[in-house]
């Protein structure tokens, strides 16, 4: 028998409601509001204005109860609500895994994508329902909703991956995804001029 750092969980069914994104039984739940994106948006003035005018939820993450320990494969479902902040499509904070660990995403509803960045190169991975997005080790990743509906995806990652959000706050993501004049996503290099940013 392999040895485990913590008692392993039993084989189990994890309920998932495709209509609502609910996971049963549910573990950690996170709601990220405009307030929580301070220092991360292209337009800090627009972000602050939205934070003061209702501070809407930008995205939610629900996880199963599979523990984040070595050897396990925890999962979470992220729902990014549609919208923009200063012309920038709603996005997740983004993070680098603290260990060299990859991750698999499966698109469930809506359209969006994965902005990935290794510190030098930025790669955009377009996502739609049924798309499997792969993030190799050493690539920071941020998800973006580029459509008019909630963009939802399943993420499966090694339990010892670790999540370093400060890396993205310091290094950025190479590019940003802005809403073009026709509503289409446009990748803009980072940093871009941002009134009142930082
Ligand atoms: C995802 C992300 C989730 C939220 O489960 O953690 O989409 O993004 P942030 O953590 O950047 O706020 C994942 O990549 N896990 O490893
Ligand atoms: Zn990750």
UniProtKB/TrEMBL annotation:
Listed A to Z, the keywords are: Gluconeogenesis, Glycolysis, Metal-binding
Question: Its pathway?
Answer: Carbohydrate degradation; glycolysis; D-glyceraldehyde 3-phosphate and glycerone phosphate from D-glucose: step 2/4
Its UniProt entry gives the catalysed reaction(s) as: alpha-D-glucose 6-phosphate = beta-D-fructose 6-phosphate
Biological process (GO) annotations? gluconeogenesis; glycolytic process
Q: MF terms per GO, please?
A: glucose-6-phosphate isomerase activity; metal ion binding
Glucose-6-phosphate isomerase prokaryote domain segment(s): 33-177
Q: Name one Pfam family in it.
A: GPI
CDD domains per the record? cupin_PGI
A GO CC term?
Answer: cytoplasm
Q: Determine if Flavoprotein is one of this entry's keywords.
A: no
- EC number(s) in its UniProt entry? 5.3.1.9
Q: Which PANTHER family match?
A: CUPIN TYPE-2 DOMAIN-CONTAINING PROTEIN, OXALATE-BINDING PROTEIN
Q: Which family does it belong to?
A: Belongs to the archaeal-type GPI family.
Name listed for the protein in its UniProt record: glucose-6-phosphate isomerase
